[in-house]
Amino acid sequence: MPDTDALLAALKRAAENPTLPHGLQSLLFETRNVLQAAVADSAAERSRYRALFDAVPDPVSVIAWDGTVLDLNKAGIAAYRRRPEEIIGKPIHVLNPDLPRDHMGPVWDALTRGDSYVVEVTNMRADGTRFPVEVHSANFEYDGRPCVVAVARDLSDRIEADLRYRELMAVIDKGIMVRDAQGRITYANAAAFRMLDVEDGLSLDEELRPGRWRVVDEDGNELQEQDLPAFRALRTGRMEDSTVLGFYNERLRQLTWLAVASVPQFAPGADKPHQVLSLFSDVTELKRDSALFDRVQALAHIGGWQWDAGRGLLYLSDEAQRILGFDNAPTTMEQMLATLAEGDRIRLREVLERTLAGSGGFDLELQGRRADGRLFHVRAIGEPEGEQPLSLHVTGTLQDITERKRTEETLRVQARTDPLTGLFNRDAVLGELQARLADQAMAGIAVLYIDLDRFKVVNDVLGHAAGDDLLVSAAHRITHAVGTEGLIARFGGDEFLVVCNVGDDPARPERLADTILGAFGDSFRFDSEEFTITASVGIARAPDDGQTPQALIQNADAAMYDTKRRVRNGWQAFTPALAQSQQERLRLETHLRRATENNEFHLVYQPQVDLHGGGIVAAEALIRWRNQHLGEMRPDRFIAHAETTGDIIRIGSWVLREACRQVRQWRDAGLGVVRVAVNVSYRQFLGDDLAVIVRDTLREFDLPGSALELEFTERVLIEDAPDTLRTFAELRALGVMLTIDDFGEGYSALNYLRRLPIHGLKLSQLFVEGVPGNKSDVAVCQAVSGIARSLGLGLVAEGVESAAQREFLLQLGVPVGQGFLFAPGLPPGEFARRLGQAAP
């Protein structure tokens, strides 16, 4: 029997619990007050405690944590109609046989948190009859040990509460169904009708009779009626825990998954249930999502795991079991650790201990061996749940990375190899070059930087497939030329790198360069096309030209660029003078970037004249650059740099607007209609919405489209894209004249020329300068003139410098020319003066 102080403390805590009914609180307070009064009489303390304990009108029992009844008052003895020795010292199941085995778990959990615990159960008398009670439990100290005091209130007369209970069942979103002792459905709420898709007005009992529905368990096994939870509860008199069942409607051909729990109910004085209540929820979507989740885990090779550290229990999902190679699911962490390699086993055990100690989660890659001997690699991720050590869980995922690990070695090799040519790639050659430069035993290193001449033209005209074939062929030729004398890499695009040791052969880099250039002597073929591709090579040596990979490659690149700019199909060794040239080019680009903002550009206008009469019919706007540090700069000095840096787009926009402004000024001066031709860069054509810019500029200066001519390079002819055709059509609709500049220099195709809505061609100065003496130039001029005539296009000859050239062009039928024979590029004022002299 617990001492009085413990009982007083227990009753006080129970009475102060705000969740207890007021009547019960008052009763417990009264009990406590009576016991307090009894303390004054220490000799009668035990008897008074018993008197007060027995004075409580409701059954009060003292229960140990394991469920053993330690004491019971007189009201309890009377209610259960049993002798004290039949109850005290016996499990609580004597009074309530329907309690689950682990019934004390929820009670313990609630009381440990400082809450009281209230539950409705059905108690049994000695004769087997039942009566419903509401049990309130609280902490209590009995004979110096913690236990539970439970007060049971008889609910047999709770008719009004039962009515409210029925109302609740009608509106709750869970399905509720009541069957009588014969299994007939006597009540079902609206949610039950909705979940089972039974139409209003129909009998649920009739709808659920065998033959109209088939019921299966989660494994797909069909169940008979007597196997359903409600019928089992009626038969055994025990509650059936929640079970997931599939209900298949034969008429609708529809499967609904329900989680069903059934509770038998006993009438007062009965020993057998007179009805059973079933509570169920629709888990169809949850079941579907669970199946999908399992499928996703299998497809992604990711499984889940959870470790209950307090009880030492391990749970693995099906996919996690498959990954680790378990036929039967392990139940402890030690079983899973046993599959790992020794080092990884130690690592995982250590991080689990740190996780339990509160250090956070972990992410590890582990190796092990399955039961069949096969190796596996997994990525294990875990993180803690909960805060109390005894309730701590560690949850995470296992991802099968075996295949990834198998391919990693292959990927390491591939990471150093160019996939197209099979040569070393950029990163690999940089690493090799760094290693050679760091090796003191190496007696000199040289780098050859190789760039294919006019590769982009072939790639653009014949397509990327031809370009790739060309790169592969070029790689083979370079490999054959270099042999074992150097390390070869594709450095990027159409650029290759050769690293060689000079050693006792100082001339090796130059000799290899000559051999490589010789390898490009034969033409390349793609399908029926044959074309010539040459190479430009730059050479840099360590340590004179650089002591780091970056410096050597940069200087070899500079030497290659100088070769390409001057002669192509040659090689150039890096020199201090070349370094100076690089600095000058950088200086040029720096000033060029600021030239527009500093108003350093101006335009001159070269007349286009009628070759018959000599009258001015138009002008071409030519840009000039005057910089206070660099002096007067002609376009051939800076346009290529602007193309490379992208500044050409900004410069081109300035030229277009300045030319239109000048035409507006000449018109306002009464000089008549003057058409000015403006060159449009290929990058400008791709980078801007050219038609919109031209339209807005013409509108700004109130000019008709006929006042402007745009000259494009042949490169736009190969842009057979819808956007290109649309831009040309929009420009032509504005009235702007469209011309292909320097026709014949590139790789134009007549098919493309026919499709674009252009007005004319410009015959390149490259061919005009050789007539009439050079037969090849004469043939090209005749061909271009014939093309223009056959397609109905205008033709302008550039670079006319002699009377003999003019006469030849007249005989060829070329109507318009420009060149020094008539005038160089003229300042706006001088051009206006000449235009005024020519006016009637």
UniProtKB/TrEMBL annotation:
Residues 585-839 form the EAL domain. Residues 362-413 form the PAC domain. Residues 443-576 form the GGDEF domain. InterPro entries: Biofilm_reg_signaling, EAL_dom, EAL_sf, GGDEF_dom, Nucleotide_cyclase, PAC, PAS, PAS-assoc_C. It comes from the Bacteria. Residues 45-98 form the PAS domain. SUPFAM superfamilies: EAL domain-like (SSF141868), Nucleotide cyclase (SSF55073), PYP-like sensor domain (PAS domain) (SSF55785). Pfam families: EAL (PF00563), GGDEF (PF00990), PAS_8 (PF13188), PAS_9 (PF13426). This is EAL domain-containing protein. It comes from Cognatiluteimonas sedimenti.
